[in-house]
Amino acid sequence: MAACLRHVSDGKVTTEVRTFQTTTADLLRLSEWLAVNGCTHVAMEATGIYWKPVWHILDDGEFKLVLANAAHVKNVPGRKTDVNDAMRLAELLAYGLLRASFVPDAQTQEMRNLLRTRKQLVREQASHALRVQKTLDDANIKLDSVLTDVMGKSGRAMIEALIAGETNPAKLASLADRRVKASAERFREALRGRVTKHHRFLLRLHLNQIDALAAAIAAVDAQVEASLGPFRTAVELICRSQASRTLTRTSSSQEARNLADRHTSDAAAFSEVHEMMRHQLLLGKSRRFVNRINYSQTALVRNERACSRQGGDRRNAERTGRGNPNERA
Asked: By three-state DSSP, how is residue 40 classified?
């Protein structure tokens, strides 16, 4: 990793370039070198996840960090080297030409990692469920034709029985929950197949993987719940904001006025946390959440204006005698 230190003394600009390893010891030497030379602002290019260790080490110091988007600081093709990039970033930072990317705080980064991990685990679980379905199809077991969810209570019981060696369609059909709509005859036909030892091995393998992933998802959910404290108010506000959307779906001015009165306290709550949510990405999706808050606030304002406008039009009509056909006559 190349670092360029830019000095300005008596109107004269001098640069010093040094190369550091990305080990923790070398990054600490980088931080010390910058601090000794009185560096106050540090710019770095966002390259994958490789910028994160450097950011974490320098964030402990007294530097103002700027993370630049690689697309915004692209250099001339054919001249891209670590040293040239470092010197270019130092020059762009000195002239104020870098637009800083948003970097969330440590708590939000941890929440993002948890939720992204959970998303990946859910995808892997769904992938194994599809492999179970593929194995059943290979054995000519048509569970998906009689069950909406093959991995539900009834489907899981039948698959476990198949793995245990049960091949009688009638006995397998008797494992269906009483709420299932398909008839017993349809179940017997769907469960008449050719299940081999190989199929049973694959089914057991995939079911074990699904169970292990379900346990991992539960562990992640517990950790998310434990880490949700700093974001509790904003999350509750987001849930409450869903109710304000009904303001845009009413056609009656009186209903709109009643709803506006009912959500006045919500509008006040929106304004209290609005600025906070602008500077903190919550749960990895806060841009969408902030837009949702903005949408709800806009809906409240629009409906309040509509109510006032309709009330004013009605009063004007009554004053001029146009509001009542009998008065016009």
From this structure: coil
Tens of pLDDT, residues 247-268: 455 444 455 455 555 544 444 4
Q: Which of 69-83, 181-195, 299-313 has the highest mean predicted lDDT (pLDDT)? A: 181-195
**Model-wide pTM > 0.90:** no
| CA separation for the pair 16, 8 (Å, rounded) | 12
73, 86 contact by CB (below 8 A): no
Structure tokens at 286: 């806060």
Q: What is the 3-state secondary structure (H, E, C) of 73-118?
A: CCCCCCCCCHHHHHHHHHHHHHCCCCCECCCCCHHHHHHHHHHHHH
User: In this structure, how many other beta carbons lie within 10 angstroms of the beta carbon of residue 84?
Assistant: 15
Q: Distance between CA atoms of 128 and 40, rounded to whole angstroms?
A: 51
Between CA 285 and CA 164 the distance in angstroms is: 44
Q: 83, 59 in Cβ contact below 8 A?
A: no
254, two tokens: 């009186």
> What is the number of alpha carbons within 13 Å of residue 129 lying toward its C-beta?
17
Q: Are 307 and 251 in contact (CB under 8 A)?
A: no
